[in-house]
Amino acid sequence: MAAQVSPAGTAARERVSVLGSRVYDVHQTIKLVNSGPGAPEKQNIWVALIQTFAPYQEVQSMQISPGRYTLVADEYGNHYAEFDFAGQPAGTTQTVQIDYRVTVNELAYELGACQGSLLNTFTQPELHVESANPQIVALADSLSKGKSTACQQVRAFYEYIGNTLVYTYNGANWGAQAALGPMGADCTEYSDLLMALSRARGIPARYFEGILFLDKATTALAQVDHAWPDVYLPGSGWVAMDPTLGRALVRRDTYFAHYTPDHIIVTMGVNPSVLRGGDYWTHLYWPGNSTRINVTGNWQIELVGK
């Protein structure tokens, strides 16, 4: 495909329809337990904050406790609350509680003729998205044969992933190339591979990490902690898809160019610098031999008006 490329900041006029919406109350609880024997001289935790991200979601309210924190942003525009818990006494628990009300839209996209220019951002290889790897490039080229548009190519990648990968929850991100091996894959590898194949063909693709409201239809398909991509398609703009939930044949169309309102975005980007390789939050304290601090976190998601 000899794709036209537009400079960063220019975009297609997105052809997306809002089919409906859901409202959720989301509760995030993080506990830092100092099991002793000492107290840390320095201790910080950075917690990613759910934000409004059009057209996917709108945050109606947010309450953060403790109220003393510093707002931090990263290179993707993600926001974090940075807490300073230096001197936390041994034998104590420090709790971070963040409560949101979020409206999430159900979106459908009209792909049309899939003609037009592409962006020149979100097209480069990076950690876990090895789009310049010879194996990835060769696979992308092979799957693209006979596919004249970016939409057809991305659909071919999506179908290949659904037909080939074996879902195995691993709680880590091994990357796109690892997904081609026998070790299995979960939502991170499903997303990495779709992104890497797309970027190998010059098609922009982004990574989202968030949470999934599970119901009877999706409980067996994924975890609350979830990741998915969107892909920039000519004439349509950024188009949502979820190759993990769409891996079953009967669900393919449900999760391609269709955003179901059970996805809540927390961060964008595979490797946000503030998280230092973590998910949702990252924690540092020192000196490390002064004491032992264990951090745990959980989400509660409630559908409002059910």
Report on this model:
This protein is mainly beta and 306 residues long. 14% of the residues lie in helices and 39% in strands. Strands 2, 4, 7, 12 and 15 form a five-stranded antiparallel β-sheet that branches. Strands 5-6-3-14 form a four-stranded antiparallel β-sheet, with no helix packed on it. Strand 5 (70-73) and strand 6 form a beta hairpin. It starts with a strand and ends with a strand.
Brief rundown of the structure:
By secondary structure, the protein is mainly beta.
Q: CA-to-CA gap between the ends?
A: 46 Å
Shape: globular
Structural class: mainly beta
Q: What helical percentage do the residues reach?
A: 10-25%
Key terms for this structure?
306 residues, mainly beta, five-stranded antiparallel β-sheet, four-stranded antiparallel β-sheet, disordered N terminus
Q: How do the helices and strands line up, and which of them pair or pack?
A:
Blueprint: E1 4-6, E2 16-37, E3 42-49, E4 57-65, E5 70-73, E6 79-84, E7 93-109, E8 117-119, H1 134-144, H2 150-164, H3 176-179, H4 187-200, E9 205-212, E10 225-233, E11 237-240, E12 258-259, E13 263-268, E14 281-286, E15 291-303
Parallel strand pairs: 1-8
Antiparallel strand pairs: 2-7, 2-15, 3-6, 3-14, 4-7, 5-6, 7-12, 9-10, 9-13, 10-11
Helix pairs in contact: 1-4, 2-4
